Amino acid sequence: MKFDTPAGPNPIDRMTVLGQPHNRFEAELKTTGTATYAYEYHNVAPNAAYGYILGAAIAKGRISSIDTRRAEAAPGVLAVITHRNAGPLGVGKFYVQRMLAAPDVDHYHQPVAVVVAETFEQARAASSLIRVDYARSPGRFDLAEQLDSAPVAPQMEFGGPTETQVGDFDQAFAAAEVKVDETYTVPDQAHAMMEPHATIATWDGDRVTCWTSIQQMNWGTRDLGLILGIPRENVRLISPFIGGGFGGKGTVQSDLVLAAVAARMVRRPVKIALQRPIMFNNTIHRPKTIQRIRLGATRDGRLTAVGHESWSGNLAGGRTEPTTLSTRSLYAGANRMTAVRLATLDLAEGNAMRAPGEAPGLMALEIAMDEMAEKLGMDPVEFRVLNDTQVDPENADRPFSSRPFVECLRTGAKRFGWSMRKTGTGQVRDGDWLIGMGMAGAIRGAPISKAGARVRLDRQGMLTVETDMTDLGTGSYTIVQQTAAEMMGLPIERVVAKLGDSSFPETPGSGGQQGAPSVTAGVYAACTKLRAVVAQRLGFNTAQAEFIGGEVRSGNRRALLASAAADGDLVAEDIMEFGDLAKRLAIQTFGAHFSEVGVDVYTGEIRVRRMLAVCAAGRILNPKTARSQVIGGMTMGIGAALMEEMVVDKRSGFFVNHDLAGYEVPVHADIPHLEAVFLDEVDPAISPVKAKGVGELGLTGVAPAVANAVYNATGVRVRQYPITLEKLLDQLPHRE
Prior knowledge:
Number of strands: 32
Organism: Rhizobium esperanzae
Shape: globular
Radius of gyration: 27 Å
Helix content: 10-25%
Number of domains: 3
GO molecular function: iron ion binding; xanthine dehydrogenase activity
CATH superfamily of the largest domain: Aldehyde oxidase/xanthine dehydrogenase, molybdopterin binding domain
InterPro entries: Ald_Oxase/Xan_DH_a/b, Ald_Oxase/Xan_DH_a/b_sf, Ald_Oxase/xanthine_DH-like, AldOxase/xan_DH_MoCoBD1, AldOxase/xan_DH_MoCoBD2, AldOxase/xan_DH_Mopterin-bd_sf, PaoC-like
Strand content: 25-35%
CATH architecture of the largest domain: 2-Layer Sandwich
Distance between the termini: 69 Å
EC number: 1.17.1.4
């Protein structure tokens, strides 16, 4: 099916099942511990051996020698794999990291060996017997030292243009009546998902099957094939349940590659889980950014110059962090300039983490907007409303498909009680606590990609949907069931969703906030084809047939849906493909975040007291699971604002706090009641389902809303995240 014109009325619009707050299909499985994660399959690959990865003890250099003899002779050891016997290993298409030091070492904890043994304990013990001698080389570990030499990042497939110019920014900024020119820093951040990266691999001839924790099946099969040097068709990945990913499991990581290599070598299944202390330096992370924002405005508050320059670092050939994405689309301004520069650093690879680009970009832009509003003497909400635009700021001929940004701002301000906010700083006390309010706008792209599904109707009237879409805990199973149920006129209990198997029809998987709109469009296409098959089988006119309450109806005639499959299962498969609407229209999601914080006047301790998110993301497929996604994003944003920082040892080149003891993330006691509100919106330009993703919108804008609230409470402007108490303590207002 091809989608190339805005959607009109269709069966989805009934919203009898879709759009309702159904419980997640897998909730009971997860809460009772019966959902099976990648490492927990005990019967699919009998007699599995265990692999244990030894990471490099240096950040840059070369393996001079490696002695594995004692490890190979240890009890239970089946093999020790290094660059000497692993065979050639390539590189995937999305990540540039090499999965084995061979013998050059690119970053700390890059795998140098894998021990395979009968038990995990034997493999771990034997790894300590490997002796590795290194020749160290000087490394580049400090982004700040590379600012002057870092070039504009090369253009890549994702992230938009790395340099843009509209009008004459330099002249407009120089002439601006009111200016902001500040630099903001967002540190390296870890995905820190609960479930570690894990894989069980087994070979059947020249074909490999892996039970693994991965978000995007199509990228995974492609990249594993490229790395192993085998056809993509010879790779099968299975990942029905994922314990969190946040982009860190987008495609192939070292557990998947090395489990497959080890299983091929020992000729039996091998399972590998990355131990927690190795994950931070071994896998990808959100890279540090240093961002300069320059805003120029007239005295009445209209932006005339918008400039955003950003620096990040990565391994050679790696991607930049596209922080300017949000700046390019969120506010009006005739004269504009953006540039992202990329330094080469010898740290673990920086790559996609929830809302790549927009999340760290807005952490800078939305503080700068707050600073400009203060200089203008304007309310921060009204300043943003004044600079709204209904067309792409870089292309006036490209309107937004929908843009209820002002409604998000107005709704949020009213619900949050924004009118009670004091304009001056440090004016509200509650005992020892200084109280402040802050807000920020939010934007996140609404991509959608080709997606397929297969649907099967049996004689009992049960409908089975198969698609390779994955579920990170986001509710993918449930929205797939809801979409199919709505299309076929069935209760949700009559639909079974089977996900997370690369042998099923292809989708873009879970990533980039495109999973939900894409997979539901694919299910829509497959069900449309099945409706035609059913109608034909029952003798109905396809265009007139209605599917309601387990029946097919037309005029006065009715037939049970199940009767169409009386002589055997009916199967339909289709792919939803998309035309050029996304090029002709700017398609985005929008939001506004409001925060109230308390800061202890004596200790500088910061407590978030309440938060509100107002989101516009097209049709909401399931308000319960969507709310869960948004408050999860808000929690993550609080962590980014106040806690999260991977600290670099700039002498030795590694992230020091590489575990969940040293890397701070929010816990229950840190999080107050969070409120999420969705505007009643549909966007017919995105798909027949008229829904957009929401999982990343809930994060963008949260951290700066907290930062702006801290400033309102204390009068201390912190431009280097995270906002920790030592950055406040000596600047707090006079303590009475």
